[in-house]
Amino acid sequence: MKKFNIRKVLDGLKEVSSSTPSVQVGPQENHLIQETLQSEHFQLCKTVRHGFPYQPSSMAFDPVQKILAIGTQNGALRLFGRPGVECYCQHESGAAVIQLQFLINEGALVSALADDSVHLWNLRQKRPAILHSLKFSKERITFCHLPFQSKWLYIGTERGNIHLVNVESFMLSGYVIMWNKAIELSSKAHPGPVVHISDNPMDEGKLIIGYESGIVVLWDLKSKKADCRYTYDEAIHSVAWHHEGKQFICSHSDGTLTIWNIRGQGKPIQTITPHGKQPKDGKKPEPCKPILKVEYKTTRIGEPFMILSGGLSYDTVGRRPCLTVMHGKSTAVLEMDYPIVDFLTLCETPYANDFQEPYAVVVLLEKDLVVIDLAQNGYPIFENPYPLTIHESPVTCCEYFADCPVDLIPALYSVGSRQKRQGYSKKEWPISGGNWGQGTQSYPEIIITGHADGTVKFWDASAIMLQVLYKLKTAKVFDRNRSKEDKGSTEVSDEDPFAIQIMAWCPESRMLCVAGVSANVIIYRFSKLEVTTEVVQLLEVRMQYELNDIESPDCGGGEQTSALPTPGASPQTSGPPSHPSTSSNNSDGGNMPCLKVRSTPLKQSAGYQVDLVVQLVWVSGEPPQQITSLALNSSYGLVVFGNSNGLAVVDYVQKTVVLNLGTVELYGSNDPYQRQPRSPRKTRQPSGGLCDINEGSATSEDRCKSPTSAKMSRKLSLPTELKPDLDHRDNSFSRSRSSSVTSIDKEAREAISSFHFSETFARKGDSTLTPCLYVGTTLGTVLALALTLPPAGEQRQLQPVIISPTGMLVRLKGSIMRMAYLDSTGAMLPPAFEPWFEPNVTADGEEREKVRKRRPVSVSPSTSQDLNESQYAVVCSEKQAKVISLPSQTCIYKHSITETSFILRADVVQMSQGVCLACFCANGHIMTLSVPGLRPLMDVNYLPLTDMRIARTFCFTNLGQAMYLCSPTEAQRLTYSQDTCENLQEMLGELFTPVETPEAPNRGFFKGLFGGGAQSLDREELFGEISSGKASRSLAQHIPGPGGIEGMKGAASGVVGDLARARIALDERGQKLGELDEKTAAMMASADYFSKHAHEMMLKCKDKKWYQF
């Protein structure tokens, strides 16, 4: 009879059970810890978005408020004021923003989108919202224009028509300028889409319309007909006025600029080809690339400025994009690092009919924002104060630290300030609008980003701001020049052999450890003094997976299980490759590291200085496996790293390898898995991750290459992804995995996925605390290693660190993600640390012999160890969490977090009310669980996981903060703390501040007398419903936005802000009423004077005959 297997049935039931199973609790009479965290302490919301707007498409500037707006191709809107004042909004449709127009000094912005919708944003609240929307259904929007101090928006379309929208009501006017009325009747061809609209600076009743085909029309709004038409053979890209309204300039697709008089209709008065070669025989210059935009700005003293983008000659292949500034007879060509999206000239006045007095140019590039100072010789750029350089090199990993030591940010800032470039403009940053928030959140926050070129950046992220503090270039440690006989050198030039994979940082000791994709680990110390390192200290480690060599646990050439260092494990400098052990496998000459450590002296400036480099070498023609986990402990002086072969512990004080073990050997004889031995000569493929060899095994020529060589495909991946049983999944994160971790058909490889140093009970039933290292694997096992450390001081330099495996603590379903320890009261036990000291001061004995500072571990003074446990271990895997009571090692709480998905990031974090476990799941859920009870406190379906970037960069930190990279250039921060959500409105900056609009330019006596100067227009009379009628209902649909309600909410928050705004409004009103009184009195006096004179004239002329006059 067939045996009935109840386990398989239970496994099947678990698979189909719900994704939020209940907490499973073990015996808990003796574990009644009062948990202070409740569901009401949690709320999830986005706080701020930092970085450069991804794929920008348009830009606008308010010259009075001094606010810059940038729109993107995915419908995002970013607003920038003074440094620290920035805001992110999103159009729901996600369509590209094709144009932005500020209602200058009104606290509002109009956006036009590629889906033919127009939106009005209210900027008078901290979180801007849409007040009105208009969706065109029959015509496609190509250009918008909103004159200063006008409420009528001109909208040009692809059909060549122009519609008018009232920005207050967002209703269409019945007044339409049809293309067939604008062009000459004799013209048979359609003029093309509208590419430009602007009114004459001196006459609001005259409108210039530019059509793509090359036709420009001067339209009289009152008479509803074309005054003049100007025709040119080449397509038009942009038009700009001279401020006196007598001339305008057009930029064309052949690289020419044409200047026209509004009176002369025939030909342009001047044609310029700024970058064209002038032939000697007087012929037309050769055509150039299109001039995409031109601006014409005048000054009171001196020549006008002509600023243009594009127009380079076609023979300048490979030349970078340029902005050309023509001022009088001088022409400056300013090269840019990326293609130009748009540029704007910043001027002293918002009035188009006055001398413009340009002082700066804002240039929006595809991946940067540059502001050029026009007032200084050489046109220097302003130093950009915004955190827009996150993507300088692609971000490969992130770490986030809240509530850091208070002296850290000043220390990093002081060394980072020495790295700043010189030659910037001396003037203040010109985008200076808005006000900072009034937040009370004051704890220091630091974000660390690792990048593809090997740089590590430290950012001050305190109080929802972001500012770069310090930049470390790890690639300086290595020789960059590859050998000439390296055949793949041309093919791998665009690869990233120095990319940062994992970072471990101890904020208290300031020790930093980074693991790179080329299987290297670099350990850094922080110093305020500059130093020159003659020889970079190097350790080369062999880690090799050899199941058939289990009898001699030399697996990877390290130490025996007793972990006593062998004489071969002395520090290796960058001489000929030698190894910590003599293994029988090194006879094939394949003992090369992936990168060569530099052999010349290394000058290290103040900041992070390299202390030790550890490299994994090629073994038996196989490249070293990618490092999947990393940890450091400054109190013990140890760094540990692991991969799919095993783990290695490095003593960075003595510069030796203390332990180098295969994963299988950690289990000893208690290995619960059945593993298939593999032949050492079998063609091997490294398990998943960064170094997949696509075409068989590496040949001897490839051995010295980085794992980014031509035969290898690189994909920065997660530690959870490093198992070979993941069915080669792509970015979609779909994967089928056995729910039972005891399946015997598992691949033999078991990678190390996490580490945790702690002072705890190493073995079951221990009564004393000892330093320990806990190791988590991808098969869900947690193994313990006891550390025996020499005494502090001189002995620490001489006596070896001894490590002994003490067996398995617990097994979970899925790869181990995170481990943490709690004391008997449920408070978190952080790992021991050493306080920072200056490493480059020669020790006088006392400085170095400081006793290691360890945070006190609270041991309950229990009379009987059985009745009162002293510690709790919290372990979280991809699928579930368990709490283990120590030293009895019994599981007291267990919670299945997800059945159908898997966890990408888990952190045990300190909230202001207690400790919790925070998880981010691949299905987009963000969850928090209480500890030690593992009660679900929050579960929010936050975002669907769309790409690997989010998974790779998501991290939680203390006090309810989290972040991830939402695009290649932007970091999104969020909070899961109710306190922060409540205070967020106060912390956010204000974009709109009450500013007096500058006075309009004086017309002057003679201009007033003879009818010169600016002509005004009653647009309301002309475009209103009474005179122009109603617009066609089918043309566009009006959609009211939620901005009104949001505005009320924003206004309701912060009573102090309300009172301040009310007071300012009253002051303004009182001031205006006072001015009105004065003007009324002046008008009455003038009327009296006129009446008196008129009466005198009447008396004088009363008795005269007609011929006497």
From TrEMBL:
- Establish whether keyword Phosphoprotein is in the entry: yes
Task: Kindly name one Pfam family recorded for this protein.
Answer: WD40
Q: Where is the V-SNARE coiled-coil homology domain?
A: 1044-1104
Compartments it resides in: Cell membrane; Cytoplasm
Main localization category: membrane
Region (Disordered), start-end ranges:
550-596, 668-741, 844-864
The ranges of the WD repeats are 229-263
Gene3D superfamilies assigned: 1.20.5.110, YVTN repeat-like/Quinoprotein amine dehydrogenase
Q: InterPro entries under this entry?
A: Lethal2_giant, Lgl_C_dom, LLGL2, V_SNARE_CC, WD40/YVTN_repeat-like_dom_sf, WD40_repeat_dom_sf, WD40_rpt
Tell me which GO cellular component terms the UniProt record holds.
Answer: plasma membrane; SNARE complex
Q: Which UniProt keywords apply?
A: Cell membrane, Coiled coil, Cytoplasm, Exocytosis, Membrane, Phosphoprotein, Protein transport, Repeat, Transport, WD repeat
User: Superkingdom of this entry's organism?
Assistant: Eukaryota
Positions with biased composition (Basic and acidic residues)? 722-732
Which GO molecular-function terms appear in the entry? GTPase activator activity; myosin II binding; syntaxin binding
The GO biological-process annotations, alphabetized, read as: exocytosis; Golgi to plasma membrane transport; protein transport
Q: How does it sit in the membrane?
A: Peripheral membrane protein
> Bias category Low complexity: which stretches?
570-587
Is Ubl conjugation included in the keywords of this UniProt record? no
Q: Which family does it belong to?
A: Belongs to the WD repeat L(2)GL family.
Listed name of the protein:
Syntaxin-binding protein 5-like
Species annotation: Cyclopterus lumpus
